[in-house]
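ok new one. same drill as before - structure tokens go in, u give me an amino acid for every spot. 487 of them this time. try not to just spam alanines like last time pls lmao
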């Protein structure tokens, strides 16, 4: 279905060099908001690869505009680095983008409704199946000092990427792309190149996966591969859309829809109404079933829905915040709040606790110019994951955040690699968590040992700054089994 000329990919990867210029009022180095997401698709001409679209976004008002006589212009340099599982860069894409306005006032953020014009774009590349990390770097050209790179405003994002193997004959789905809008192109318009055009559609991606309740509709795009098609073969296939909350509970079922196969492949391009969903973090699930033999396949993608209210706790607005929520939040912020903040929080009444939380979230907001506090959303998620995976109490799963693995998960995020070593007559089981490119530290790892045999892994050694270090940790692996004689 995807027949992209390789020359296009080469042009994206080796575009013209970015040359800096001297400007009258350079800005100091500061981070600006950005988002990055991806979707992988089957490409018929190169079955050993997948065509991967990396779509990214930034806010126009955060760029630096220059007076160009009759208009104002901002320029940004975009780099996309692809890293293997060990953190080694194996490919780099580069692109220069520019945006122009006639009225300088239109570059400002609308403080009335807290909106800003979004700049959305995409880069494409062929990739083999496997696991990668991808790092996005955006440099605001007009804010650079004397045209020197890495001196002006910048944006950075890094995501993990899993590329599936589409060279299979079984029913399969592409990744799911979430979008602000999808429109069919007029006849003949699809011939002109645009990174946001595909399959006769203009797909405006939402790389942040953040929707506002006033958006009402969530658009999406996906492709189906290897439908059974031919003479005397059932021509029907069925599609179902569902939404689950972060705990896996079903919150919306949009029913099953019947379609007729156009061939071995088909396109899914539609929208669901999200206006009735509560605020929170959700998983959108798309399921496809082939009417010929009943085989089915599914794909999903997480998104966030935000209302105008201020969320102090998971799915809890400021107005609905209770003392039970306050007790939960004391656990969630435990590893990040300072001693002074925790003392203030514990001593305050309910309204006072709300104020402490507001200051805490604001101080940790990586992108204050956007509605979503990405730090808060991620911390809520990691707290939930820690309890689900690492709780010692298997009944209510409420203490995982207090374990060593839960603490490291909440502070450092999910590791790039987990190596589990089973127990033997000579040693206890242990886990090695590796972070191949942790900010400011590079490759770090943690060693957790299960000394009791009941699944409570204790941190014994780490190369991370400020963590427990014991270079003799391997000598601590001797089994605590009282019947182990060592022979």
């Amino acid at each position: 279905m995807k027949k992209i000329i390789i020359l296009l990919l080469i042009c994206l990867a080796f575009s013209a060099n970015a040359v800096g210029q001297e400007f009258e009022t350079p800005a100091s180095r500061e981070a600006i908001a950005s988002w990055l997401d991806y979707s992988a698709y089957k490409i018929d001409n190169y079955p050993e690869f997948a065509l991967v679209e990396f779509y990214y976004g930034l806010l126009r008002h955060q760029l630096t505009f220059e007076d160009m006589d009759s208009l104002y212009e901002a320029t940004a340099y975009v780099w996309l680095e692809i890293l293997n599982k060990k953190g080694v860069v194996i490919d780099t894409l580069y692109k220069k983008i520019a945006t122009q306005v006639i009225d300088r006032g239109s570059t400002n953020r609308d403080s009335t409704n807290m909106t800003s014009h979004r700049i959305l774009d995409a880069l494409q590349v062929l990739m083999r199946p496997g696991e990668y990390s991808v790092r996005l770097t955006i440099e605001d050209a007009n804010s650079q000092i004397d045209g020197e790179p890495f001196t002006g405003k910048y944006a950075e994002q890094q995501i993990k990427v899993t590329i599936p193997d589409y060279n299979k004959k079984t029913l399969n789905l592409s990744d799911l792309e979430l979008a602000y809008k999808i429109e069919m192109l007029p006849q003949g318009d699809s011939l002109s190149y645009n990174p946001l055009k595909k399959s006769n559609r203009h797909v405006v991606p939402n790389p942040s996966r953040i929707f506002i309740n006033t958006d009402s509709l969530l658009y999406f795009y996906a492709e189906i591969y290897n439908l059974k098609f031919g003479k005397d073969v059932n021509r029907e296939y069925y599609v179902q859309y569902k939404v689950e909350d972060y705990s896996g509970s079903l919150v919306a079922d949009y029913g099953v829809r019947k379609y007729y196969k156009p061939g071995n492949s088909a396109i899914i391009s539609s929208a669901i109404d999200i206006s009735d969903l509560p605020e929170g973090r959700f998983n959108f699930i798309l399921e496809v079933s082939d009417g010929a033999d009943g085989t089915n396949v599914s794909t999903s993608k997480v998104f966030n829905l935000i209302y105008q209210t201020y969320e102090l706790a998971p799915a809890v607005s400021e107005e609905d915040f209770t003392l039970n929520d306050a007790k939960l939040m004391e656990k969630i912020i435990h590893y990040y709040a300072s001693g002074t903040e925790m003392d203030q929080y514990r001593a305050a009444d309910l309204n006072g606790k709300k104020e402490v939380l507001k200051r805490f979230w604001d101080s940790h907001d990586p992108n204050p110019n956007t509605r979503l506090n990405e730090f808060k959303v991620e911390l809520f998620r990691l707290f939930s994951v820690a309890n689900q995976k690492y709780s010692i109490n298997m009944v209510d799963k409420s203490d995982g955040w207090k374990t060593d693995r839960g603490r490291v998960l909440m502070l450092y995020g999910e590791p790039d690699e987990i190596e589990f070593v089973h127990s033997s007559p000579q040693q206890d089981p242990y886990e090695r968590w590796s972070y191949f490119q942790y900010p400011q530290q590079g490759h770090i790892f943690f060693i957790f040992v299960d000394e009791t045999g009941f699944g409570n892994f204790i941190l014994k050694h780490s190369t991370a700054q400020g963590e427990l270090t014991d270079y003799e940790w391997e000598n601590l692996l001797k089994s605590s089994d009282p019947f182990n004689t060592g022979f």
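The chain has six helices and 25 strands. and btw The chain has four domains: 1-166, 168-308, 313-396, 415-487.
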